[in-house]
Specification:
Blueprint: H1 3-9, H2 12-30, E1 41-42, H3 47-62, H4 89-94, H5 96-100, H6 105-132, H7 135-147, H8 149-153, H9 158-161, H10 165-178, H11 182-198, H12 200-220, H13 228-259, H14 265-270, H15 306-316, H16 326-351, E2 354-358, E3 361-366, H17 368-400, H18 403-411, H19 413-432, H20 438-446, H21 460-486, H22 491-507, E4 515-516, H23 523-529, E5 536-540, H24 545-558, H25 572-580, H26 589-595, E6 598-604, H27 613-626, E7 629-635, E8 639-644, H28 666-672, H29 681-695, H30 701-711, H31 724-738, H32 741-744, H33 748-759, H34 765-776, H35 782-790, H36 793-813, H37 826-838, H38 841-849, H39 852-859
Parallel strand pairs: 5-6
Antiparallel strand pairs: 1-4, 2-3, 6-8, 7-8
Helix pairs in contact: 2-6, 2-7, 3-6, 3-24, 6-7, 6-10, 6-21, 7-21, 7-22, 10-11, 10-12, 11-12, 11-13, 12-19, 15-21, 16-17, 19-21, 21-22, 23-24, 28-30, 29-31, 29-33, 29-35, 29-36, 31-35, 33-34, 33-35, 36-37, 36-38
């Protein structure tokens, strides 16, 4: 290595570049095999698509019409739609060159996600190095902050993962407090602005810890509070940053006032962390993936065990501590006992009953008894420790309790480092609790900015800034202590390497599960890009939201206005589209398309559930016949494009319609494919309840299919439950059922009691008597009573999930739930639990449609 190269590497900028490269190398290791798939790697096919579009829009609009940055090409015809979620402008700016050389939006997103880990580690490294002057402590802090399990939990949300500006802003403040030059003031303003531009949530959440850090620095730095340069230059820098950021804040304010889009207090509360959430780990972490499964909660904030233990070491091992006495040895032994018991307590809380094995050998078992024992040990050892140390602590306070002594202690570098780390760690933990802590309730009630926070739990990232600093300090002090105790000169670097290796092992998520995103533009998007239009584009199916995520990604390809998109908020028109097209299309939907105005309607047949296709085809057929839609062409073999004639009267058809528009009744569709009984699930569920109420036995596939075919005769696919044909057919069926010997032999009272018992629900005695009286007076027929009981709201609610799941078995698998290959009801009960928990019928249908059993039936 030449002398020039050595001189170059000694420069701060070159050294920092090498440090960042080092964190990139660690990121390769910890996120493997992400680096091999930078072209199309995504955590999932949801939010990453939306964020990839956001990065592209920031680049596109900056160089085309920057004054209208927030008037994005989604949620047409609304304005300021970029402000419906995070704008990510600060992140996008860093990757503008990648867009400029022609990389695809999803590729830029994958590179940015990879860089987010390295940049976060680098930011924490810088902060810890500035606070401690130790690069060894800084490396360990960087590892903790870069790869804390919560960062992997945010893998789908780039703006939350890319959190390196948080520690860099804190470092800029500390550097400026030490030397109040214009250069450092400008860097403070830049870091403050970039943190705000990268993530509005981080901007808001960092205000309190930055303010508390500033107050501490004024107390700890002699003369800082009265320093004119500190106030003038600092205020100028921060004010300039806020002025640059004010147009972004204004856009969010306009969205709130124009459309009434703001978070409700219940959302703030629901997305807050509880204490148990801090014991739940992200399942991507290989060591702690099952941690917290025994606990309830929705957040996963567990940082691992090593980082908190190292942070404790920062307080336990003081620099320059005197040689230990017997009492000190006893206190340290008690500390060790408390720490071990706390680890047992945490593991037991997170895992419940667990047996730990190493290489197949039983090592330890934790259960409820372990929880009790650990608690007793902590309390006992804690009381003994307090009794041993309290007298000495009181003497020390009396001896050193004067303002000058306190100020001297505050001003030391080690005290400042620990205090800053403690401020950020404590505030982040408190803020993550949301309304569970009174300070957060006050901020929510009185400060407008804090009312825009939807996920208080994400303040955990603020906590991890401080935890990383304290963990780095603690690791360095632990290594120094071991070197002194063992009197081995070169032991410290070896201990630090072992700690770094242990942290990487504990925090590892590799091999990381990734998905391959749809990077390339579709044929439809390329066609729309060259198609002039007066209005926007509506793409169906609109639900679930993952469909709209893809449409947003494609909006970066065609650059045309998209009507139904997705974000933290969605537009009222998108809501209306979702309601009008969920399962079947309302006949008024064409009126909505013309009113928006929409120029084109794209229907992605490959993304549609099988039962929904006939209803879509019927809707399209009616509008083609009426001349309100015009078929343009089919793209990629599955996506049909239609022009809304009122808004695009000159659009031309380029190909014949790829499906038959002749009308058939619902019976014909069910006969052709039983999955079509799910095309009208409410009607099919009504039949299920009638059969259950009449017999008391869950309908079987062999009985249900011919019965549904009978009642579906002459029923229009797009009819509702009140259709004449369906109602007439049900009455005929009910008449036939009540004539069966199992019901005909009962008198009126016994008949009503039998039906009610068959439903398994409790009917009011007055309602039951009313049924009997109406039969005795011949005011109602037995068939009418059966239909009334079958449509009782309590009965409908009771059987809704069970009947819907059974219909999926009948429609997709064409069998009873316990028939082979299942042979029992375990599979049915599993899916019923999922449905009872999520109430997401589309998710269940998608699972059945993608099952290997259904695919085999389709091939046959």
């Amino acid at each position: 290595m030449t002398r020039t190269t050595i001189t170059l590497l000694r420069r701060p900028v070159a050294r920092d570049i090498l440090i960042f490269i080092g964190f990139c190398a660690l990121t390769v290791l910890m996120t493997w095999p992400w680096i091999l798939h930078l072209r199309d790697a995504v955590a999932d096919k949801g939010d990453p698509y939306m964020i990839a579009w956001t990065l592209w829009w920031d680049f596109h609009q900056t160089f085309h019409n920057p004054l209208h940055l927030f008037d994005a090409n989604v949620f047409y015809p609304y304005r300021y739609t970029l402000a419906f979620s995070e704008n990510d402008f600060g992140i996008a700016m860093l990757f503008f060159p990648l867009f400029a050389i022609g990389l695809r939006p999803l590729t830029v997103h994958a590179i940015a996600t990879f860089s987010g880990f390295a940049f976060s580690g680098y930011g924490s490294f810088r902060l810890t190095r500035t606070l401690t002057g130790s690069e060894k402590a800084a490396w360990l802090a960087g590892i903790i902050f870069a790869f804390v399990p919560y960062r992997f939990h945010l893998l789908s949300h780039l703006h939350y993962l890319f959190a390196g500006w948080l520690p860099l802003t804190c470092e800029a403040l500390i550097l400026f407090a030490r030397r109040r030059t214009w250069k450092r003031a400008i860097w403070l303003g830049i870091a403050f602005l970039m943190n705000a531009l990268s993530c509005v949530s981080w901007f808001i959440m960092a205000l309190a810890p930055l303010g508390l850090t500033t107050i501490f620095l004024m107390l700890a730095t002699n003369g800082l509070m009265r320093d004119r340069q500190f106030w003038t230059r600092g205020v100028v820098a921060v004010t300039a940053a806020l002025i640059f950021f004010s147009p972004f804040l204004f856009a969010y304010y306009r969205v709130s006032t124009l459309y009434g889009l703001h978070w409700q207090p219940w959302e703030f509360a629901r997305n807050s962390a509880s204490l148990t959430d801090w014991l739940r780990a992200d399942p991507r972490n290989k060591l702690w993936q099952n941690m917290g499964n025994a606990l309830t909660g929705s957040q996963m904030l567990f940082p691992g065990l090593l980082a908190p233990l190292l942070a404790l070491s920062a307080f336990r091992f003081r620099e320059g501590a005197s040689s230990p006495s017997r009492r000190r040895y006893l206190v340290r032994a008690l500390d060790l006992i408390i720490v071990v018991a706390a680890v047992v307590l945490i593991i037991t809380l997170g895992y419940g009953d667990i047996v730990i094995r190493v290489f197949g050998f039983w090592i330890a078992r934790f259960n409820q008894r372990s929880l009790t024992h650990a608690t007793v040990v902590i309390l006992t050892a804690g009381v003994i420790r307090i009794l041993l140390t309290l007298p000495a602590l009181i003497r020390r306070i009396k001896k050193n309790f004067d303002v000058a002594s306190i100020m001297d202690r505050l001003s030391t570098q080690s005290t400042v480092a620990i205090a800053v780390g403690l401020i950020w760690m404590a505030w982040g933990f408190i803020a993550s609790l949301g309304p569970n802590f009174f300070v957060n309730r006050w901020l929510l009630d009185h400060l407008l900015l804090f009312q825009s926070i939807r996920f208080p739990s994400r303040a955990a990232m603020i906590c991890f800034v401080g935890l990383a600093v304290l963990g780095g300090i603690g690791a360095a002090r632990l290594a120094a202590k071991m070197q002194n105790v063992l009197s081995l000169e070169k032991l410290r670097p070896l201990v630090l390497l072992l700690i770094a290796g242990a942290l990487l092992f504990e925090l590892r998520a590799a091999p990381l599960h990734i998905e391959h995103g749809e990077t390339d533009a579709s044929a439809l998007a390329l066609r729309l890009k060259v198609t002039p239009m007066r209005g926007g584009i509506v793409e169906l199916p609109s639900e679930p939201a993952d469909n709209r995520h893809l449409y947003m990604l494609r909006a970066a390809d065609h650059e045309r206005p998209l009507v139904n998109a997705t974000s933290s908020f969605i537009s009222p028109i998108t809501n209306e589209i979702n309601k009008s097209t969920n399962g079947r299309i309302d006949r008024s939907f064409i009126d909505l398309l013309e009113t928006i105005p929409a120029s084109y309607l794209a229907i992605h047949n490959e993304r549609m559930l099988a039962p929904d296709r006939p209803a879509y085809e019927r809707f399209v057929a009616r509008q083609l016949e009426s001349g309100r839609l015009r078929f343009v062409n089919r793209f990629d073999g599955a996506t049909d494009l239609y022009a809304v004639v009122k808004n695009e009267p000159h659009a031309k058809s380029e190909a014949p319609l790829p499906f038959d528009i002749s009308f058939t009744d619902w019976r014909s569709e069910i006969t052709r494919d039983p999955v079509n009984l799910l095309a009208q699930p409410k009607l099919s569920q009504t039949l299920y309840r009638i059969l259950l109420a009449s017999s008391g036995v869950t309908p079987r596939y062999a009985e249900f299919l011919p019965t549904i075919e009978d009642v579906a005769t002459r029923v229009d696919e797009n009819s509702d439950e009140e259709s004449t044909e369906f109602a007439d057919n049900l009455r005929i069926l009910a008449d036939r059922l009540v004539q069966q010997d199992s019901l005909r032999r009962f008198d009126n009272r016994s008949y009503v009691e039998r039906l009610i018992r068959n439903t398994g629900t409790s009917f009011d005695i007055q309602k039951e008597d009313a049924f009997i009286d109406s039969l005795d007076r011949k005011q109602s027929s037995r068939a009418e009573v059966l239909l009334t009981i079958a449509n009782d709201p309590a009965f409908i609610n009771q059987e809704n999930d069970r009947s819907l799941l059974l219909l999926n078995y009948f429609g997709y698998l064409r069998r009873n739930p316990e028939d082979p290959p299942d042979r029992n009801l375990s599979g049915f009960n599993f899916w019923l639990q999922q449905l009872n928990r999520d109430h997401d019928a589309a998710k269940i249908a998608a699972a059945f449609q993608s099952s290997s059993e259904y695919r085999k039936l389709r091939q046959q």
